[in-house]
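Async update (no meeting this week)

Hi team, since we skipped the sync, here's where things stand on the single-chain job. The sequence we agreed to prioritize is pasted below, unchanged from the tracker. I ran it this morning and attached the output directly underneath so nobody has to dig for it. Comments welcome in thread, and please keep replies under the output.
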Amino acid sequence: MITAKQIAKKFNGKIIGDENASISRINSIKDAQAGDLAYVSESKYYYLVKNTKASIVIIPEEEKLMASTATMIQVKSPVYVFTMILRQWVKENKKVKTGISKKTSIAKTAKIGNNVYIQDNVVIEDSVVIANNVQIMANTFIGKNSTIGENCLIYPNVTVRENVQVGKSVILHSNVTIGSDGFGFLFAKGEHIKVPQIGGVIIGSNVEIGANSTIDRATVGSTVIGDGTKIDNLVQIAHNVEIGKHCIICAQVGIAGSTIIGNYVTLAGQVGINGHISLGDHVVVAAKSGVTKPIKSEQIVSGFPATKQKEANHLHVLTRKLPEIYKTIKYLKIELKKLKTDS
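Output:
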């Protein structure tokens, strides 16, 4: 049980209502029942506070008092407070399992740490190192000479091929593939000749990789994903790409080979990045943009080819005016022709 008084004290909040109100569950403001904690942070959801059945609601500190039977706690950032409480609640209620299923294939040369949980049909090849407190779900494959760091969570049907290093506290969602061959072919003598991909992949710590995403191994050297980077579902990262720390890469992004991406970069959904270019730190690329040239640090870009957002927005406005401009030019051509005829 968590009380309003405890929450307010921890997050420097102001209580409106009963400081002894308590919660044992967490829910959305719309679906919450008695004993639940909920939050609102956007004005379009404020109307839900009036009729919520939640016991405690986290609200922005700058907002006026909202009429509600719930106890409310005003804080600077409701999203942050709610997230921190949610993380603690999950940690306290998570049942950690240990043990190795008999329906696994683990090479004799593999090293398995303490408090490891491995489900059915997992294959672990020669010289693999599995550190302490790792959880590996069913039907996962770990290739030879690969390393899985402490506290990693690997969901079902993941493939980690040979010579892959995965750092600490990494989450790999279902159907992730790490270390597939880079798309390397040499066109010679009328055919595409496969270039052997003999490099590896290095995944930093606290990285999360979404379902069905793929990270190719390097031709030589390593494809690198920096610490703290979060990758959404259905992302393709090609061979020899280097991604910095704490980047956000949204769904359906494709990054071509040998691209270097700095720290704290955000790539919105369906962004395409050309190969052999670089993006500086703190770059933001808007959704559905195509990046064809290097981008310096601290830039926000959009469009195809991606340009500074202000310029891209200006071009978009002009594009929408093209039918009107066309009609004007057509009219002026007719009038010019009349003037020539009259003269």
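Quick observations from my side:
The longest strand covers residues 56-60.
The helical segments are 4-11, 47-51, 78-93, 309-320, 322-342.
Reply here if anything looks off.
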